[in-house]
């Protein structure tokens, strides 16, 4: 198991991280890290996360299979590039998170993995996932996939991401941080 390394400054063109940095335990008084499943997370929500994390002095890690550029330079911000393989970014996040960390993702199966590990999980639309909500979303997802396989359309499609969604995300994020005393 690898020991925690000092924060790596954010870079515009980071190299792939072949050995994900893992945190083996939680020390008393340690602040949570924010993990972002950045491949599909909306740019406006990623920017809000960066500003909020910077204002609170929190470590934030973007994880994706390609570079996600961001303009803020802060030693607490990091971009981890994973191999372009199915599940690589999810595994990096799941392996790096420890109980009490925060994860932002649109991926329901990843959210379920993280909730089971004691991670606080939110999505880009202001939903906080607990065991009940993530199980409900997994069932809805499974039903939708089954209907799609049968050629039936559920009528559900992801609408655009605008001010209303960003506002709901911001409120959820700030409520979560407040509940953690941050």
List key phrases describing it:
182 residues, alpha/beta, 6-stranded mixed sheet, globular, disordered N terminus
Write structural notes for this entry:
This protein is of the alpha/beta class and 182 residues long. It has five helices and six strands, in the order βαββαβαββαα. It has helices spanning 43-56, 88-96, 108-116, 131-149, 163-179; strands at residues 34-37, 60-64, 77-81, 102-104, 120-122, 128-129. A six-stranded mixed β-sheet has the order 3-2-1-4-5-6, sandwiched between helices. Strand 5 (120-122) and strand 6 form a beta hairpin. Helix 3 packs antiparallel against helix 4 (131-149). The longest helix is centred in the last third of the chain and has 19 residues, at 131-149. It is globular and about 50 Å long.
Q: Can you summarize this structure?
A:
With about 180 residues, the chain is an alpha/beta fold.
């Amino acid at each position: 198991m690898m020991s925690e390394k000092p924060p790596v400054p954010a870079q515009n063109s980071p190299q792939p991280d072949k050995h994900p940095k893992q945190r083996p335990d939680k020390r008393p008084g340690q602040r949570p890290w924010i993990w972002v499943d950045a491949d599909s997370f909306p740019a406006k929500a990623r920017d809000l996360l960066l500003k909020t994390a910077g204002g609170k002095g929190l470590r934030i890690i973007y994880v994706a299979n390609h570079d996600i550029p961001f303009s803020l330079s802060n030693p607490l911000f990091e971009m981890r590039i994973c191999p372009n393989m199915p599940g690589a970014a999810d595994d990096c996040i799941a392996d790096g998170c420890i109980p009490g960390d925060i994860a932002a993702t649109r991926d329901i199966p990843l959210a379920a993995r993280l909730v089971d590990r004691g991670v606080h999980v939110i999505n880009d639309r202001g939903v906080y996932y607990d065991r009940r909500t993530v199980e409900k979303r997994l069932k809805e997802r499974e039903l939708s996939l089954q209907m799609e396989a049968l050629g039936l359309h559920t009528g559900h499609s992801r609408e655009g991401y605008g001010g209303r969604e960003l506002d709901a995300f911001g409120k959820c994020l700030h409520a979560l941080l407040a509940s953690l005393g941050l």
